[in-house]
Write a structure and sequence with these properties.
Methyltransf_11, alpha/beta, 11 helices, S-adenosyl-L-methionine, methyltransferase activity, seven-stranded mixed beta sheet, disordered N terminus, Rossmann fold, transferase
Length: about 280
């Protein structure tokens, strides 16, 4: 079972507003883990993030003309790539007004403003009518939510019957101690973590048919070493953007995060379809 902490929408927004420039320095505008096909730790963190976005695009399978909602869109890089690669239109929501504004500016600079829209939104009360989207994805955002099941029900509401949903989420194993859970929840500003075993029932109860659940733990774990390497390479840039104390603090914190995560963190990529409405 998950242990909850007081990660409020406001604290999540403040976290991303403060550390987004840091993530851009060490990786890219895609604020998610990297992916190594064979668990190989080679290549940069930014390149691995791009590979992961590519994999998720293939799993979602959206097509030109479809409308997709991105729950927890961050700076909009995956949404922009999704729109550019498939021709679909993407509506991104984030709890951070700053991120929404940055994502919109970035999309306009890339000529993708006509296919993407970004704004602040509450995933537990989506500001859209029923059956208004063909697909949805939530990349490393559900662990921030106060009620994961409520978000899934909202996604079922706004998706058309047969619409596809993709979730990429950190999970914890049964080996996680209370100390592991508490530390990782604070480190990732997470309200709760689920488990691989709990997810099938969660999506079924929300109105979805599970299609596939991939365990990609070994493919994403090299992220921890890649981030540590990027921190060493980008020390001067991080120091200039923040401070010497910030740099020292994040290096020490990342070592502790790595220790806990390697012991008990998992990662899933799940796809499901919205069940037809009952007659």
């Amino acid at each position: 079972m998950s242990t909850e902490i007081e990660a409020t929408p406001e604290s999540v927004a403040r976290h991303y507003d403060s550390v987004t420039p840091f993530y851009e320095i060490i990786g890219s505008r895609s604020l998610h883990f990297g992916y190594w096909p064979q668990g190989d730790a080679g290549g940069s963190f930014g390149e691995a993030q791009q590979r992961f976005t590519d994999l998720l695009l293939g799993q979602l399978g959206s097509q030109a003309g479809q409308r997709v909602i991105d729950v927890g869109c961050g700076l909009g890089e995956p949404a922009i790539q999704l729109a550019r690669s498939t021709g679909c239109k993407v509506e991104g929501i984030t709890i951070s007004p700053l991120q929404a504004a940055q994502a919109g500016r970035w999309a306009n600079q890339l000529g993708m403003g006509g296919q993407t829209t970004f704004h602040r939104g509450d995933a537990m009360a989506l500001p859209f009518p029923a059956e208004s989207f063909d697909a949805a994805w939530a990349i490393e955002s559900l662990f921030h939510m106060p009620d994961r099941a409520a978000v899934l029900r909202e996604l079922a509401r706004v998706l058309r019957p047969g619409g596809r949903m993709l979730i990429a989420d950190i999970v914890l194993s049964a080996d996680a101690t209370p100390e592991d859970r508490s530390f990782l929840q604070r480190a990732f500003v997470a309200r709760s973590f689920s488990t691989t075993e709990a997810y099938p029932a969660l999506v079924r109860d929300a109105g979805f048919e599970l299609e596939q659940l991939l365990d990609v733990r070994e493919n994403v774990l090299p992220t921890f070493g890649a981030v540590a390497s990027a921190l060493r390479e980008k020390e001067a840039e991080v120091r200039q953007a923040y401070s010497e104390d910030f740099l020292a603090g994040v290096q020490g914190q990342w070592a502790r995060i790595t220790e806990h995560a390697l012991r008990c963190m998992g990662y899933i990529v799940l796809t499901a379809k919205r069940r037809p409405l009952e007659e």
